[in-house]
Amino acid sequence: MTSPRFPWAGRLLALSCILLSAFNLRTAVTSLTPLLDSLGGTFGFGATMTGVFGMVPTAAFAAFGVLTPRLAHRIGLERTALLSMLLAAGGLLARSCAGGTGGLLGGSVVALAGMGVGNVVLPPLVKRYFPDRVGSVSTLYITVLQVGTMLPALAAVPLAQAAGWRVSLGVWSLPAVAAALAWMAVLWQERHHRGLLAVLHDRAVAPGDEAPELASPPARGSVWRAPLAWGMAFMFGMTSLVTYTMFTWLPRLLSEAGASQAFGGAMTALFSALGLVGALLVPGWAARVRNPFPLVIGCVLGYLAAFAGLLLAPMQWPVLWVVLLGLGPTTFPLALTLINLRTRTPGGSAALSGFTQGLGYTLSCAGPLLFGALHEATGGWTWSFAFLLLCVALMVAGAWQACRPRMLEDQW
């Protein structure tokens, strides 16, 4: 049965909303991390609080990944998307007006809450408005998300040097405001029953449920009993841990080695940009191979070389170290792809996705904090990288379970 086809012209507003929202899903993370060293001097916080700032993103994504579906079922996907962008804009703006560490942290929490909500609602919005182009629109919004991750890291220090740190942090509220205004236009069309978007919305919703795309058949098994599920959680969680630890600490590590803050921001941008390579190439490749574990080994070799280079000679070939480091998190899109490849039913996929991302993001919260605490306690980076090596080992153990060709439903 072929997917229904609808005119693109009638859906351009929805596409604009989705892409604008996607751009805003990581700006609160990478606009801040290149400035944490200088902000620590301004507000008087050290490595421990830097680690706290680094753990807030994954904590917010874990918490709001659980809470968002219930909210969306009640108020609808579009209103939830609008709320996510309003929270993002408000938090980013409040953070730029902070008078101390508490205000900086509070604004970050609000902004990241909005981005955590956005993580959940964008995929079903793609399914609602582009049922005939799910793959292409998903690839497009993931690409825009990566651009929104890269640009703030690249611009943070130059903007702070030219106009001050408040402008550097606050300017990223503007794209969130633009996304919110676009969602308001969609809601206006739907309320007045005008245009194709209103038709698609009315067809999608069900009585008493404004977001049926987020519903799934109840799973008949206990996912936590399956070794596959635990392997997926550790693979996903340890990858996220290393990624957000590096987002937080890479600028500081390079600046202590003698690099400028602007160079540290540029390397953070390069690190985030390399995530696009895996996002575009891995899903299709993983679907064609029986066991993708060799890719995990390649990622581990990249991590090992990058960790050694950043620890022993960070400024000798810094671009090479960051490129190798950026290829390591290719296991992230692999884990997301395996959620569907290792399940037979929508209920199994939903159960495995919830377990993997919920537990995975929870585990990853500790990474930035422990990495910084070890650095502060020892005065060097050796034990911090030893901690990351342990996490990579756990990731490999999880990936061994996740990559083996078997199905969740056969284990629970």
Automatic annotation (TrEMBL):
Record-annotated Major facilitator superfamily (MFS) profile domain positions: 10-409
Matches recorded under InterPro entries: MFS, MFS_Cyanate_Porter, MFS_dom, MFS_trans_sf
Metal-binding keyword on record: no
Source species, domain of life: Bacteria
Protein name: MFS transporter
Organism: Luteimonas composti
Keywords, sorted A to Z: Membrane, Transmembrane, Transmembrane helix
Listed transmembrane segments: 44-68, 80-98, 104-126, 138-157, 169-188, 228-250, 262-286, 293-313, 319-339, 351-374, 380-400
Source taxonomy: Bacteria, Pseudomonadati, Pseudomonadota, Gammaproteobacteria, Lysobacterales
SUPFAM superfamilies tied to this protein: MFS general substrate transporter
